[in-house]
Write a structure and sequence with these properties.
The structure is a single chain. With 330 residues, the chain is α/β, with parallel strands linked by helices. 32% of the residues lie in helices and 16% in strands. It has 6 helices and 11 strands. A 7-stranded mixed sheet has the order 2-1-3-4-11-10-9, with helices on one face. About 3% of the residues have low confidence.
């Protein structure tokens, strides 16, 4: 810092030196500002890159999980191939596909994924209800209007049922399915998570042992000592509705819905937390409007700043006008 002199000559010399230094500092600070801006941009890019969630890793001690389904979750085009949702679940569970609820009695698993199964006999229904009632935990995907894309012809026994065949069992547990709504929809569960469903249904008339949650899409029922989480849609686990890249099912950055987290949680496991989603088109429009207003404000502020900076500098060395000497009479 410069010491401000008191004498007039020294003051003039100091002002001239200050002006010279100022002219030297401005370009230096301008260059430093550009470098700092580039550094901040690179830092932001690195932070975004490092913030990407890593791929889901297999748990060291996966729990046992039985799966009964009519959906093509373990085969495709006649070959044994895991569907993406199965690939994700294998990171948390030791999966055992079963053909019938009668096999649950000899299974070590205490958790069951029951996804749009074929028709069960009365003995199989009794076995299913008894297994859950003795302390089993089941996630039931019951779709009243399945829209899963299939290349198999109509009537092929390998095709999954077009409508759920568990409606009577579900009503016995304490809830009833409502008629489905057409089309694909983004369904918010009420806790920030979103599922993409297709021709999904809902629940009504919950009994004393059931509770309807997820904004009507999910019902949780107590069955004896066990529990059943029932979802009124099975299309939601189709990878076309929750995954951007079918070859990257273990990368959370490729998930377009919270389906893996929801399914894993209903079965008693956890996966990386989901992201925040746009709730509606109106919310997106309002967010864009706010962003535009903020941009206009900063643009106006920058214009004012650069105009002041481009104005002619004040000549500090110009002599000030002398003060008029007061006139004294006499």
């Amino acid at each position: 810092m410069f010491r401000i002199p008191t004498k007039a000559l020294e003051r003039d010399e100091w002002l001239a030196t200050a002006r010279s230094k100022w002219r030297d500092w401005v370009p230096a600070f301008a260059g430093t500002g550009r470098i700092a801006a580039m550094g901040l941009a690179l830092l932001a890019f690195a932070a975004c890159w490092l913030a990407q969630e890593p791929a889901v890793q297999r748990a060291p001690h996966p729990a046992k999980l039985s799966v009964i389904t009519g959906l093509p979750l373990f085969w495709r085009d006649g070959a044994q191939v895991d569907a993406p949702i199965v690939t994700v679940l294998r990171q948390r569970f030791d999966l055992s596909p079963l053909d019938s609820p009668l096999a649950l009695e000899n299974s070590p698993a205490k958790t069951l994924l029951l996804a749009q199964p074929r028709a069960f006999s009365m003995d199989e229904l009794v076995a299913l209800n008894g297994w859950i009632g003795r302390g089993g935990k089941a996630l039931v995907l019951a779709d009243p209007e399945l829209r899963w894309p299939m290349d198999l012809p109509l009537g092929d026994r390998r095709r999954p049922p077009a409508v759920t065949l568990l409606a009577a069992m579900i009503e016995y547990w304490g809830v009833r399915l409502t008629p489905p709504s057409a089309g694909e929809k983004r369904h918010f569960l009420g806790d920030g998570r979103v599922l993409t469903v297709y021709s999904a249904s809902g629940f009504e008339d919950a009994g004393p042992k059931c509770r309807i949650v997820g904004r009507g899409l999910v019902a949780r029922c107590m069955v004896g000592k066990g529990s059943a989480t029932i979802v009124a849609d099975a299309d939601l686990i189709d990878d076309r509705l929750w995954l951007a890249d079918a070859a990257a099912s273990l990368e959370p950055g490729q998930w377009t819905a919270d389906t893996p987290q929801f399914v894993a949680e209903a079965l008693g496991a956890t996966l990386p937390a989901g992201r925040r989603w746009v709730r509606s088109g109106d919310a997106l429009v309002n967010a864009v409007r706010c962003a535009v207003l903020v941009g206009i404000f900063w643009a106006a502020l920058g214009t004012v700043f650069f105009r002041r900076r481009g104005a002619a500098p004040l000549d500090l060395s110009s002599p000030r006008p002398a003060r008029p000497t007061p006139f004294k009479e006499g």
